[in-house]
Amino acid sequence: MSRVDRSRTSASQDAVTVDLSAVIVTASPDGPLVLVRSQDGAAPLALPAGPLEPQHRTLEAGLRNWVEELTGYNLGYVEQLYSFGDANRHASARGQTSRSLSIGYIALVRETRPKQSSDISWASWYRFFPWEDMRSGDEPGVMTRIRESIAGWIAEAPHDARQDRESRSTNAFGKSGDRWNEELVLERYELLYEIGLVPEAHRDGAACWAPREAAIVEAESLQSDHRRILATGISRLRGKIKYRPVVFELMPPRFTFLQLQRTVEALAGIELHKPNFRRLVENQGLVEETGSVSTNTGGRPARLLRFRRDILRERPTIGVGLPSARSQKG
Amino acid sequence: MSRVDRSRTSASQDAVTVDLSAVIVTASPDGPLVLVRSQDGAAPLALPAGPLEPQHRTLEAGLRNWVEELTGYNLGYVEQLYSFGDANRHASARGQTSRSLSIGYIALVRETRPKQSSDISWASWYRFFPWEDMRSGDEPGVMTRIRESIAGWIAEAPHDARQDRESRSTNAFGKSGDRWNEELVLERYELLYEIGLVPEAHRDGAACWAPREAAIVEAESLQSDHRRILATGISRLRGKIKYRPVVFELMPPRFTFLQLQRTVEALAGIELHKPNFRRLVENQGLVEETGSVSTNTGGRPARLLRFRRDILRERPTIGVGLPSARSQKG
DNA sequence: CACCTTATTCTCAAACATAGTCTAAGTCAG
DNA sequence: CTGACTTAGACTATGTTTGAGAATAAGGTG
After folding, report:
1. Shortest alpha-carbon distance between residue A222 and chain B (Å)
2. Which of A119, A315, A327 should be substituted to probe chain B, the one whose Cβ sees the most B Cβ atoms within 10 Å?
3. A244-325 under CATH 1.10.10.10, yes or no
4. C-alpha distance from residue B198 to each of A260, B99, B153 (Å)
5. Alpha-carbon distance A222 to A201, whole Å?
6. How close is the nearest chain A Cα to the Cα of B191, in Å?
7. Tens-digit pLDDT profile for residues A283-295
8. Which residue has the higher pLDDT, A111 or B242?
9. DSSP string of B134-185, one letter each residue
10. For the segment B42-94, what is each residue's pLDDT rounded down to a tens digit?
11. How many Å lie between the alpha carbon of A298 and the closest alpha carbon of chain B?
């Protein structure tokens, strides 16, 4: 059972450093927040990352360990996202002999207490992805400008690349009227990167169509490939809430229907139909009444609910539905 | 932009070796096959695995590279599965100073030509997971025996663990009549591991309820944690075919509806309703007619179809539906 | 030709989703 | 105290998708 049976295991792979990056998410009344670490000076923000230490029994244990040490937060739900390991993961790594490998995780925490003691703070994830917040349509007009840039990119395509560019962008961003697929966060980011509309593309020296100045000004970027990791995390979470009751990891012990709906909307970046949302959550038996009501609703008092923790045992493959992306008819 | 900003990056993490393990899948008339590597003597089979070499630009490129070198197959679809890195990933690793990290991938190939030149061969994945093939109910009775063992495990639970054991097993394996969720491959394997019904649990020295002799005799195990990786791969693939047209990576250029259905059934391990399957695939516009027919059907000739490759551009988030696990009413 | 096999088309009801309307029960300004 | 405003929560009408099955078509074979 020993590893010697691996005939091709070579010595050339030893110079690998592994670290764990975390997309740590919480929900506030102002929307989804993500934990970021500020650098010295005007350097871009970074996701918290820590080393993989030998004493950790599992990768996840390692992650929980250093995050809880660093922040004092109690991680609720934790899930591995993806392992990122391009040789040019960040510009400075080119020509480096050691490859750096980063295993991304997403974690949900309930507590928002500042804990700003250090260089750690919470930031709305829409600071980095303003185009992902479609709750009030394209209110600040970011999307309109993105679409214009993309239109230019398509128009200037060499003949054989035209169709491809067209379909990739309609797929990621939808046709103006067409249905927006809120899960394609990573696809959208990667398309913008490729076109050159995010600064990272220029920083990495990628060959892009758009000049550096064309970068979307409303969006803040992150260190190295952290915006890509964050995109992966948002994508995953937006998908997950549909078939697993993970939103409740972000809710207080007691909440109203509308609070729950607002949280889901904030995560998904889209608005939902109130009566239908209520019916769905009710029918799935995800919540039960606490008996008390919340009077500070601004209108009629709302019943306070609690998550039915039993449901996890009855059928864990259940979630709070969104207009499903399945029925994207052409 | 350099890595020095990572305050906690310690020197203690250097002794990590990374390798890429691959679940390489193809479909044959006899069901889904997975590429395995035989060891010397009576040692269990292994998944092919190769080192991460510094010259590979991306992880995926590295994987494609050595797999194609090793097997000569042309990998079609490739997707990262999960990074496995428990300190005791295999028994011999305990007490070892260097941690071994394995990044699992799933890859689909169309060609089945033997290529048995070396120690590499194809094996039905149900050899390792006989209980995952429910196409003809519980025909060989494996499942019945598993359920009996599980019943014993529940019966002998200490009072406070009873409910938990009960719900975990009904969730993974379903109640006798209840709907079987074909995606929970990993959950089922891990439950069996924990109970002690797979030899790996005893090999790893895990504390289990069942004695070593109780291991499910119909199932063959794999080296180290490879059966776990395979379970992850099957799970992912079973999920993916529902919303992405990946099955077609396993189909010949021209095929009939029934061939397509049989392939999906073989992967999912369940039977499907013929007219409904046809309707679904037709409505989604996944296929088009070639004009010719296949006469060796044993009955009325069937039209030969081809995959509409354009669909990938029109709407990539589409797949061949299975009875959706969503509507698992209590 | 009778009969077996698979292909292909229809039908029908149940379940679900979408997009509303309408009523209830609070707060707050005057 | 009233009327405007706010949110809660129940209900309705309509269309779409699914699950299960019957009915018909078109080949082969004894």
Report:
1. 10
2. A315
3. yes
4. 42, 25, 14
5. 12
6. 14
7. 999 999 999 998 8
8. B242
9. -BTBSTTSHHHHHHHHHHHHHHTS-HHHHHHHHHHHHHHH--SSSPP-TTTH
10. 889 999 998 887 777 889 988 998 888 888 888 989 999 999 986 554 444 44
11. 35
Q: Which amino acid is at A289?
A: E
- From A16, A168, A318, residue closest to B52, measured CB to CB: A16
Q: What is the pLDDT of residues A28-74, one digit of tens each?
A: 988 999 999 998 878 899 999 988 877 778 899 889 988 888 888 88
Strand partners, A192: none
Identity of the residue numbered A6: R
Residue type, A113: R
Q: Does domain B15-127 have CATH number 2.40.50.100?
A: no
Name the nucleotide nearest B303; use CA and C1'. Answer: C7
- Tens digit of each residue's pLDDT (9 = 90 or more) over A293-324: 988 878 899 999 999 988 877 776 677 877 64
Nearby residues of A30 by Cβ (< 8 Å), 6 or more positions away: A124
B234-264 residue pLDDT tens: 999 999 999 899 999 999 999 999 999 999 9
The answer to whether the CB of B284 falls within 8 A of the CB of B323 is no
For domain B244-327, give the fold: Arc Repressor Mutant, subunit A (1.10.10)
The CATH code that applies to domain A15-125 is: 3.90.79.10
Which residues from B are below 8 Å from A243, CB to CB?
325-326
Asked if A18 lies within 8 A of B328 by C-beta distance, the reply is no
Q: Suggest the residue from B7, B8, B57 to mutate for an interface test with chain A (most A CBs closer than 10 A).
A: B8
Which residue is nearest to the C1' sugar atom of D9, using CA?
A275
Name the least confident of A41-55, A208-222, B169-183: B169-183
Subunit contact A59:B203, Cβ cutoff 8 A: no
Domain parsing of chain B, residue ranges: 15-127, 131-219, 244-327
**Strand C nearby residues, CB < 7 A:** A 273, 275-276, 279-280, 295, 298-301, 321, 323-324, 327; B 256-258, 274-275, 278-279, 293, 297-303, 327, 329
Place of tokens 């207080």: A252
Nearest nt to the CA of B328 via C1' is: C15
